[in-house]
Amino acid sequence: MKNKRFKAITIISILLLLIYGKNLTERQAFKSISKTFTEVYKDRLVVEGYIFQISDRLFSIQKLIDHCNLDYDYSRVISEIQGHEEGIMELIVDFEQTNLTIEESDYLSDFKKIISNDLKINSYNLLFSDSSGVNSQQVKLYDQKIALAKKDLENLSKIQMDEGQKLISKAKVQINRSQIWAQFEVALLIILIIVIYFYLFKGKPKNQDMFT
């Protein structure tokens, strides 16, 4: 009888340890899943928002450059362009704080150079003057630089989609693994119930018959 009890206690202890170990593993899995979805939000969805805002400001810059032949308050144009450029650079700073891939970092660095170096307009006369009208060559040059900047943004946006898909796939694997562990726990609990019943309850009537 003591031998049976010892076996029962040993088996039950092992099963409880396995269940405890499974719970620890599942906690780590949930932490990993939570971290993955945080990355999807912080490093991909939020960044896509940055890209949208940058694109909007870049469009505003191009609009001011391409419509330089229209009647406009010349004194405000340069300050408006500079304001959009400063806004873009502030968004880039936030962008750089996220978890960047190597490819992403290269595109962002190239885009940053275009904004800070190639699109600097110190005088509206570079674009338009009353005497000679629109400086078509200079406007065309700025448009080419803006086109390159847009291409960088398109590539950055594509990376967000690709990396976001990778993170979602990773989360799916973690969730499936967690479901397998949950099934394993159910199996352990069933085995535990059977062991308890077999060793503690099934033998009880026999013991009672011995004393009657």
From TrEMBL:
Chemotaxis methyl-accepting receptor HlyB-like 4HB MCP domain location: 4-117
One Pfam match: 4HB_MCP_1
Keywords: Membrane, Transmembrane, Transmembrane helix
InterPro entries xref list: HlyB_4HB_MCP
Source species, domain of life: Bacteria
Transmembrane segments: 180-200
Name listed for the protein in its UniProt record: Chemotaxis methyl-accepting receptor HlyB-like 4HB MCP domain-containing protein
